[in-house]
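=== Structure Prediction Worksheet ===
Name of assembly: unnamed complex
Input type: mixed (protein and possibly other molecules)
Chain count: two
Listed entries:
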Amino acid sequence: QSVLTQPPSASGTPGQRVTISCSGSSSNIESNTVNWYQQFPGMAPKLLIYTNNQRPSGVPDRFSGSKSGTSASLAISGLQSDDEADYYCAAWDDSLTGHVVFGGGTKLTVL
Amino acid sequence: QVQLQESGPRLVKPSETLSLTCTVSGDSISTYYWTWIRQTPGKGLEWIGYIYYTGSANYNPSLESRVTIAVDTSKNQFSLNLSSLTAADTAVYYCARRHGSYSTFDIWGQGTMVTVSS
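=== Predicted Assembly ===
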């Protein structure tokens, strides 16, 4: 059971806009920044969005992130077939001695 | 171009200690925080801990009693020791560079699959 809650799956057709949610609590998302990772089968995760809504160099502006209160969202516009991957959110959690927590991941299918 | 490469055994016996090394190339290890993350088969990601070049480390409370992360600046490497292994520790182990916030990992190794089995 992951500390951050994501829907296990999401889907869309090419060209559509899809959003993936990430729900947390006051000790993680509400008080710390959120990052998003994209992972293809057999590959290491790749940083997709950092500090809630910033894109690393090379990430298309079709990908965007937002945060409000104890939740965050990843939006993908102009969906493409090669966006089909697993997506994870992550944040620092202030509880105990402090630690990084991840969402359980969302498998995005492009129909 | 910064690259990270994990190395270590692929098969470890229950109750034994796993030792993995991450070699950093293209950058000095004395610049960032360095992290271990694992991913169990078919499941999500789990943060193990991070270390700074000074040796200061922070561990996941759920693993803290079994984990040690160390750094060797002379070799530009950092390492993971995980003791008292069980089948539940079977996973792909990644090393990564932390850059910015505590949960921002901008460069990852390719990962190494470790199986705990007798």
